[in-house]
Amino acid sequence: MHIQVAPSVLASDFGNLQAAIEMINDSEADSIHIDIMDGVFVPNISFGFPVLEAIKKHAQKPLDVHLMIVNPDHYLSAFKEAGAETITVHMEACPHLHRTIQAIHELGCKAGVAINPHTNVELLRDVIRDLDQVIIMSVNPGFGGQKFIEHTYEKVRNLKAIITSSGSEALIEIDGGVNLDNAYKLIDAGADILVAGSFVFNAEDPAATISQLKEH
Predict the structure, then answer these.
(1) Per the record, GO CC terms (predicted)?
(2) Is the Cβ–Cβ distance between 6 and 31 less than 8 Å?
(3) Domain limits for position 122
(4) Helix (H, G, I), strand (E, B) or coil at 118
(5) Residues 6 or more apart from 52 whose CB is under 8 A from it?
(6) Which residues are annotated as a binding site for substrate?
(7) How many structural domains does the chain have?
(8) Neighbours of 210 (CB within 10 A)
(9) Residues designated as active site
(10) Binding residues
(11) pTM of the model as a whole
């Protein structure tokens, strides 16, 4: 399978969000990654439903919505209505994870689970066959532009082994500090989707940078 790239609009110019979405539309990106932060689960606040709806209005690529929030179950249907096509919740925020995954699928969305740097991939074994994707956080969630955590490669390899042995079709998505220096090693370890925020939007030519990531 070819590598997928999901630019994260958290790193874009919020004053010109439409231009950022149009750049992604015209690029080789596969989806648009949207981080929803509540200031409780992570120490930052991003945006909510009105901004998501505005993005959806202009987007021509699927919206990959990453919920970094407490009590995500309360908002799943609202995120579906606002335009989410994939909804990813954090394992650490979901005491009844299997039920949450079922609820996402019942809405007609793809379901993902994200895990923080300290969370062991073995904890996903019992739900891996129910998932469409797993986001491995390669930085601590909350802010863009952080340094990539090197232990991520081992986590990707371990998760890939779990996916293969269980017969799951879940894709592995990497979120945080992705660039051309680590993209090849991540793909080699088993990653399927690369989320890139600052690396894309701070580039002189963001669309060309997306293409470079996909060439690996």
Answers:
(1) cytoplasm
(2) yes
(3) 4-215
(4) coil
(5) 34, 36, 63, 65, 79, 82, 83, 84
(6) 8, 66, 142-145, 175-177, 197-198
(7) 1
(8) 24
(9) 35, 175
(10) 8, 33, 35, 66, 142-145, 175-177, 197-198
(11) 0.96
